Amino acid sequence: MRIDADDTLASTVRSASAIATASAESVTATDEIIAAVQADYRNILGALYRAGYYGPTISIQVDGREGASLSLISLPPKVETVVVSVTSGPRFSFGDAQVTPLAAGTLLPPAFSRGSPALAPLVGAAKDAAIDAWREASHAKAALKSQSIVANHPKSELDVALSVDPGPAATFGTLEVEGDSAVPARRIRKIAGLPEGTAFTPEYVDLAARRLQRTGTFRSVTLREADELNADNSLDITATVVDEKDNRIGYGAEISSLEGATLSSYWIDRNLTHDADRLRIDAEIAGLGGSTGIDYSLGASYRRPATFNPKYTALLNASVARLDEPDYRSDTGEFTFGVDVEASRSSEVSASLGYRYSDVTDALGSRKFNHIIVPLNGARDTRDNRLDPKGGTYLNAEIMPFFGVNGSASGTHIVADGRTYFTFGETDGVTLAARAQIGSVIGAQLAQTPPDLLFFSGGGGTVRGQPYHALGVPVGTDTTGGTSFLGLSGELRAKITNKIGLVGFYDLGAIGADALPASNADWHAGAGLGFRYNTGFGPIRVDVAAPVSGDTGEGIQLYVGIGQAF
């Protein structure tokens, strides 16, 4: 095929053309070629309208005959040449561009105005903006009443007049429930939390759907507005839900050349008491085959949504662990109860109260700790993909005051983790990822703080290339954790093919004996290269790293896991 068009329009025509696609795919069947040719009059015309050309001439010659005149019943035996000729004519601008009436605060597209290029999608965008604004103002059934779109060819202008019927202001009616769910309809209504009798807004409908999805109990959730308002102008909503399987078992594995292998597994009951409540049990063994000792942990968590009102999820957590770390050994147990509070579409905060016990041996001797703890956590996650993010940000911070019992000291444990991602390149094939971690213990000295609440640096979660927990605070000939930590990491991720990617990274860590890493903090760094293989659900990660500063390690370290490093 051949396309005869102005250089600025050739790519527009080609991308819209079905015959161009057929040519690229080497289609030779006559009936398919003629069908594509006849569809292209509409395809190309639509593409030109979208670009602001409303007086084009389109000719598609099939072996010298106009394609529109050919019959699919009496086909030629074969097709040799297809020539697409397009004369666009002048590009139109908007003349009159009006939408009436408008709700207060309506923001129409700025380009939908006199003198701007009259791109057809702007007309639809202006209509949608006007209707959405009325719906936000509680007019649930706002709709387009009439439209007048006139192409003034002598002036090369497009005059547009749209009329919207807002309809009456609506309130929320009843939430009906459809689907064969094990969760009773009353619980589904409570979790969704649609405020019956209050002014309708689409935001509340979206929020109700997110609350149901967030439980993890349902495979799919659909909220559908009734076609008509009730006599009292209330609007009923129908929720259609499909349950997930009650139970799920998962597992994970990571390996490091020094730290050894980490094996983890979990079991979930998504609907423990038919209240859309979830019980999760986690188990992990770390340090298998490594030189740092073997760690064991077992934990259970319980979540019940809409316990007090739709914004609050009740939390219960219990865990026990035996940690055999390079610089300490610890047996710990912890129990907390609290609430998780819905803050926004991408943010959550939680507050808990609990008890924590530790029996430890380290460079400072053998000690036992008993604390009442108050963990306060906030998280905001706008990443586009948790296992392989290419955009967005992630921030998680926890402040945990701990109050000593039976002679233990009191203080506050603070940790924060921030990440950001920026993707660029012609095919969005390069991602720059950055991470900052901070930690601090305030109000308690080293010897008064459980070692697992102190900070070390080195290993896969902090500084790759440095041995696990290699950097701490010297105590005589031994080492203990610090009361402050700062970690900085950067990665440049390049997609080589759809399946294969390469990564270059640099990690930097500091540990201090004060509440903030100051000038007397010790620093070290590591850098390396990584390989990624995209499995579809997350990349397989292989990183090779070595120390680049500090005196805490030497040689090459290997890290293998699933998902990006951060």
Q: Overview of this structure, please?
A:
With 566 residues, the protein is mainly β. Helix content is 13%, strand content 48%. The strands form 5 sheets. It has a 17-stranded antiparallel beta sheet that branches. The chain has a 4-stranded mixed beta sheet with strand order 1-4-2-3, with helices on one face. Strand 28 (539-549) and strand 29 form a beta hairpin. The longest helix is centred in the N-terminal third of the chain and has 21 residues, at 30-50. It is globular, with a radius of gyration of 32 Å. The mean pLDDT is 93.
Give the SSE map:
Blueprint: E1 2-4, H1 7-16, H2 18-24, H3 30-50, E2 57-62, E3 65-66, E4 82-87, E5 93-100, H4 120-136, E6 143-152, E7 157-165, E8 171-178, H5 185-192, H6 202-214, E9 218-225, E10 234-243, E11 247-256, E12 260-269, E13 278-288, E14 295-304, E15 312-324, E16 328-342, E17 347-362, E18 365-373, E19 376-381, E20 392-404, E21 411-424, E22 430-442, E23 473-475, E24 478-480, E25 484-495, E26 500-512, E27 522-534, E28 539-549, E29 557-562
Parallel strand pairs: 1-4, 5-7, 8-10
Antiparallel strand pairs: 2-3, 2-4, 6-7, 9-10, 11-12, 11-29, 12-13, 13-14, 14-15, 15-16, 16-17, 17-18, 17-19, 18-20, 19-20, 20-21, 21-22, 22-25, 23-24, 25-26, 26-27, 27-28, 28-29
Helix pairs in contact: 1-3
What can be said about this structure in brief?
The protein has 566 residues and is mostly beta strands. The chain has helices at residues 7-16, 18-24, 30-50, 120-136, 185-192, 202-214, and strands at residues 2-4, 57-62, 65-66, 82-87, 93-100, 143-152, 157-165, 171-178, 218-225, 234-243, 247-256, 260-269, 278-288, 295-304, 312-324, 328-342, 347-362, 365-373, 376-381, 392-404, 411-424, 430-442, 473-475, 478-480, 484-495, 500-512, 522-534, 539-549, 557-562.
